[in-house]
User: Fold these one by one.
Assistant:
Number 1:
Amino acid sequence: MTHAHINFQRLQQDIQELSAIGRDADRGIHRMAFSEGDLAGRRWFKERILAADLDFYEDGAANLHGRLDWDGSRPSVMMGSHLDTVPGGGPLDGALGVLVGLEVLRTVKESGITLRHPLEVVNFTDEEGRFGGLFGSQAMAGQLSPAQVHNARDLDGISLTEAMAAWGLDANAALFARRSKESIHAYLELHIEQGPVLDRGDISVGVVEAITGLFKWEIQLKGQTNHAGTTPMDMRNDTFQGLAEFASEIGRILEEHGSPHSRATIGRVELRPGAANTVPGHTTFSLDVRDTDPDTLKGLSDAFRRTLSAMARRRGLMFEFEVLSELPPQRCDPGLVQLLSEKADALGFAHLRLPSGAAHDAQIMSGIARTGMVFVPSLEGRSHSPAEWTNWEDIERGANLMLQAVLSLAAQDKETLR
């Protein structure tokens, strides 16, 4: 194992500088995809790439690449994540993985280490899904169609085509951002855990074994709007009572059809007409269900459909649902999981193998490359909020683990990973 170490003071400075871009009065960071904050963050990242004397490249999906020892013929060891945020997000979700990747490239360049494979760091466009998916990594993995690009819109009705055109970009060029499997030797991503497991266990490093899949539905229940005082309880077609019954079944469904990694959440509810003295005749709600096993996820989907249908039949309600998104679960490459674990042991870092309950660009990239992920703790499990943070010493450990894993991969041929 090489004795190289990342320049942690420089990484700290990058984190602090980037976290000031898009910060609002609420202390949250607003760098939603194709917003002014996102544009400023991307400009800053490009400047840092060029200042490090690395090659800069922007592909058709507006993914930003920093490259070291690039010749276009050898497959690269790629690191990546995203700089865009949710509204009012924190300073590390996504951004930390990009900045650690940049620091790894700078450290390797300054060390003068000879590479069998070139290195890349990528800022993927719109990982947070303003336009409905993980746009940048889906483009790179060849998972976009012209219809998907044309139809992509945000919650305000702004199209992806319009948002990119405002920056002088052609959204259809994303179809040319596809990379072949032969062009990527391996893909690694460092990310904050966004959950409490590592923090509560006082463990500095997590090695991700699997990334959750999910399905997200919008469900509408249709009954009969009526007077709250004059309609007897046994004569109501109350859609909120239907929702309450359905929600009470979540625990049973997970116990009977799920696994320890299963999650189900109703995060948004809208009652209409929404008056205190009116039986709600229309209820719309979301259902987000996740698991790391595809068969388990399918079983949960079937169980939730059956339960919804049975509840509606008993209560005289109509229902319909729209599938808002679906992502298949993915297992990380066993060879990379083993490599990351061995490097953590060699560095003396206590580590834990665990699943990811959130979706990541790594999930999409696994379709075209061997993929591995490193987690660092999130204090109190907080994420997607201004309270999101990771202790500096844990960031440093995660960054040095990435450096050692990347150096090992960059010296390998593909067969040694099998």
Number 2:
Amino acid sequence: MDKIIGMGNALTDILALMDDDVLLDELEFPKGSMQLIDDEKLETVRERFALMQKHRSAGGSAANTACALANLGGEVGYLGKIGKDETGIFYQQALQKNGVDTHLLTSDLPSGFSSILISPDGERTFATYLGASGTLKSTDLSREHFKGYTYLYIEGYLLQDHELVIRAMQLAKEMGLQICLDMASYNIVEAERDFFDLLITRYVDIVFANESEAFAYTGKETHEALDEIASKCSIAVVKTGKKGSLIKKGTERIQVEPLAVKKVVDTTGAGDYYAAGFMYGLMCGYSLEKCAQISSILAGHVIQVVGTTLSPQRWDEIKLNIDAILHA
């Protein structure tokens, strides 16, 4: 099987369920967005979170994908930066417990974390303090980080550091890796559209986007957005929520239905798990349709729990679901 290394912001997720969206208005956080917060805003968020029931897990978009892939049996590495603190220790141990080969550099800053506010409809809004994770720089990277891997999976949340992302992609290409990019969040795409375009046309082989991200990048509705993205890379994936997903490679176009679920509890990690399923399928050599079906299974399961940590029993169920579609 092929091997994949993920690269992203090493963030511990702190999740809290809300009874309504009033807090989002008070904090001036657009629903469904990712907001970087400074020290002043951090204190306000901490005060509000202190009054709420919370759940902690290792997170960050690329790390979620890496952990899910490892739980499926994939050979996965992860590259990021943590602080020399309890949160950093927790983070590294959590990834290793999931079977991820960690390449974690350290900083004197506190480890980064993301406060995740979950609305009653399952939509999540991120308030992110980068801390040590934001100090990962282009000079930290070397060819050795990518040696032995087939794919580099990189999250769009890193694109604010242009030098870091370009250096990572250049080194990966020099080592013969294919590059996968998840667009991460519509507001990041809006702010960095030209840079996304440069990367996709010059380096990226596989693009993952949801409908709002695809629109932010192309200014077009879903099907036309898929066509435009696919014209610039090898494989384009546009996730369409309750309608499933669309995949295009060359002239091949596929539409796959989502997994039917009774209740959406929390959409945190849905896109990350979708990418994990898709990459697992590619790593195993399955067809694009099978890859997308596996993606739907993973995404459908993670939205039924709070956070991105699934029980061993649920992973067993996922593997049975995958086995069923492979032998259908």
